[in-house]
Design goal:
332 residues; alpha/beta; Rossmann fold; Dihydrodipicolinate Reductase, domain 2; 2 domains; nine-stranded mixed sheet; six-stranded parallel sheet; 9 helices; 17 strands; 32% helix; globular
C-alpha cells in the first residue's frame, strides 16, 4: 500500500478524493488546499480525513509516496517538479501544462528522478475507448483513414484557457491513444462569442501516413454532445458518450451504383451494425488505479507524462495556427 495525497479540491479534486478513499491499494494521507472553505467541505464529507493548507507538509513527508495535483494549470510545472525532486510520484490533471517547454521539463524531471509521471487524460480509461483500442490494435478496423470528433457543452463563463485546451484535450488524448503516431502538423480556427477567449474551435490534424482528423469543440451548446467516428479501411467505429449504446461497430457497406450501364439493379447497402458491449467501469477510478499500480511497478502508465506532452504540443501548434489564420503548423 502506498501513501498518497490530493493537492487541490476545487471543482474536480473532490472526485479524486472520493475515488482514492475507495481504492484498497492506497492510503489517502492528506488532502491539501489553500482555501479553508474547500477543506471544510472535504471534512464535512469525510470527518476522518487529514487536511492541511500547507503543501510543504506533503513535500517534506518522507512517508508520502505520491501526490495528485488538481490545481490550476499555471501551477502544474512548479508543483510537479518540486514533488518529483522530493522523490514523489506525480499525477497531474489535464492539461499537463500550458506550454511545450514546461511539459518537457516535467517529463525530464520524472526521468531524472526515476519517478512515475501521469497525466489526467481520463477518457483513455473509458471502457468504450479501451474497447476501440482493442478493436483497432487487432487489425479488425484496418488502416485508420479519418477521425471526426465533436465535443460541446455550455461554458461555465470563467476559464484560464480557451475551449481547445478545455475540451479538445480529451479528444486529442483519445486520438493519440488510438493512432500509431501523433500528427505531424495542425491547422486550427477559433472564434469568441460569449467570453474573451475562443469559445468555438475547429482543429485539423494531418498524419504522415495520409490519415486525417477533424475536431470541433464549443462552449455554445445548451446540451452536452460527445461524439467520435473512426473510419478504417475495413469498418467504422462510432462512439457516442451520451447514448445508451455508446459504441457501435459498422462493417463495410456495398456500393455498386457505378458498376456498369446494364439493366442489372445497382444498389447501395450500409455495412453490418453491431452494438459493442462495455463493462461498467468508472474511468477516474481506473485511471487512479493505473497510476498507483505504476508507482508500485505493477503496471505501465497508460496516460504517462509523454502522452500529456504530446497533447500540449498539438494544442500549442493549434494556438499558433489560430494566430496565423489557420496556417498549417508543425509540432514543436
Amino acid at each position: 500500500m502506498i501513501n498518497i495525497a490530493v493537492l487541490g479540491v476545487g471543482y474536480w479534486g473532490p472526485n479524486t478524493v472520493r475515488n482514492l478513499r475507495n481504492i484498497e491499494s492506497c492510503n489517502l494521507k492528506y488532502v491539501c488546499d489553500m482555501n479553508t472553505e474547500r477543506l471544510e467541505f472535504i471534512k464535512k464529507n469525510y470527518p476522518d480525513q487529514n487536511i492541511t493548507t500547507d503543501y510543504k507538509e506533503l513535500l517534506n513527508d518522507e512517508e508520502l509516496h505520491a501526490v495528485c495535483i488538481v490545481t490550476p494549470v499555471t501551477t502544474h510545472k512548479k508543483l510537479g517538479i518540486e514533488f518529483l525532486e522530493k522523490g514523489k510520484n506525480v499525477f497531474i490533471e489535464k492539461p499537463l501544462t500550458f506550454n511545450v517547454q514546461e511539459a518537457k521539463d516535467l517529463v525530464e524531471s520524472a526521468k531524472k528522478n526515476n519517478k512515475t509521471l501521469c497525466t489526467g487524460h481520463i477518457f483513455q480509461f473509458h471502457p468504450a475507448v479501451q474497447k476501440m483500442k482493442e478493436i483497432i490494435d487487432s487489425g479488425e478496423l484496418g488502416k485508420i483513414n479519418y477521425i471526426s470528433a465533436s465535443r460541446m457543452n455550455q461554458g461555465a463563463g470563467k476559464y484560464e484557457v480557451d475551449v481547445s485546451w478545455d475540451l479538445a484535450t480529451h479528444d486529442l488524448s483519445i486520438i493519440n491513444y488510438l493512432m500509431p503516431e501523433i500528427p505531424n502538423r495542425v491547422s486550427a480556427f477559433g472564434k469568441n462569442h460569449t467570453v474573451d477567449l475562443n469559445d468555438t474551435v475547429t482543429m485539423r490534424l494531418d498524419y504522415e501516413n495520409n490519415a486525417y482528423a477533424m475536431i470541433e469543440v464549443s462552449w455554445l451548446s445548451p446540451f452536452k454532445h460527445r461524439f467520435m467516428k473512426i473510419f478504417g479501411s475495413k469498418g467504422t467505429l462510432v462512439f457516442d458518450e451520451m447514448a445508451e449504446d455508446k459504441l457501435i461497430h459498422y462493417g463495410l457497406g456495398i456500393d455498386d451504383r457505378d458498376k456498369g450501364q446494364g439493366s442489372g439493379s445497382l444498389s447501395y447497402r450500409e455495412g453490418t451494425k453491431s452494438v459493442v458491449e462495455l463493462p461498467p467501469t468508472e474511468p477516474l477510478k481506473a485511471e487512479l488505479i493505473n497510476f498507483i499500480d505504476s508507482c508500485q511497478g505493477r503496471a505501465k502508465p497508460i496516460a504517462d507524462g509523454v502522452s500529456g506532452l504530446n497533447v500540449v504540443q498539438i494544442l500549442s501548434a493549434g494556438a499558433e495556427s489560430m494566430k496565423n489564420d489557420g496556417k498549417w503548423t508543425k509540432l514543436s
